[in-house]
Amino acid sequence: DMAEPIQQLTRNNNPQERQSIPFTLIQRKEKLGDLLYEKRQYGKAKWACIKMKEKQYEQSICLGFMKLMRYICEQNSSGLYLGITVPIVTIVHTNEAQSAMTQAVTVAYYLPEVLQDQPPHPFDSDIIIEEWPATIVYSR
User: Fold this and answer.
1) Which of 98, 121, 125, 129 has its CA 20 to 30 A from that of 108?
2) What 3 state SS string does 48-72 have?
3) What's the mean pLDDT in 98-126?
């Protein structure tokens, strides 16, 4: 099922072709010279998002990522490979009291700059295009 998207990604797995999402570094946490995480602010932008709720948290992330890869690798209204932007963002959801994680996660792909004004429509109805306001992201 994922053979074509993986082949497409492999053919296009040139580091120069990966677009880093523009951000402002807010904080950088290191321990003994190793980077633990960065706190970043991303500007307002359009993202392709999918919310998953599988039994296992990791399963939700993997399945959501695979669905986004299909969208990136031609299963969109343009019929074209859209290009990779990094990072792919995972949003962990909490219960109403914000005391525990839920099984639901959102996996999101930043649409490349050239597609921000008119993003291709996904064929998968589970994927939605959202415009996010400026957003804080923790990255490892």
Assistant:
1) 98
2) EEEEEECCCHHHHHHHHHHHHHHHH
3) 93
Quick one: pLDDT at residue 19?
A: 86
Residue 36 lies in a domain: no
Termini Cα distance of the chain? 29
List the one residue out of 11, 9, 42, 10 whose CA is nearest residue 24.
42
Q: Is the dihedral of CA 48, 50, 56, 59 positive or negative?
A: negative
pLDDT at position 9 over 70: no
What CATH number is associated with residue 63?
Answer: 3.20.80.10
Residue pointed to by tokens 């570094």 = 25
Q: What share of the chain is helix, strand, coil (3-state, %, to 5)?
A: 20, 45, 35
φ, ψ for residue 104, nearest 5 deg: -80, 135
- At 34, list the tokens: 């190793």
pLDDT for 82-103, tens place per residue? 999 988 999 988 888 888 888 8
Residue 20 lies in a domain: no
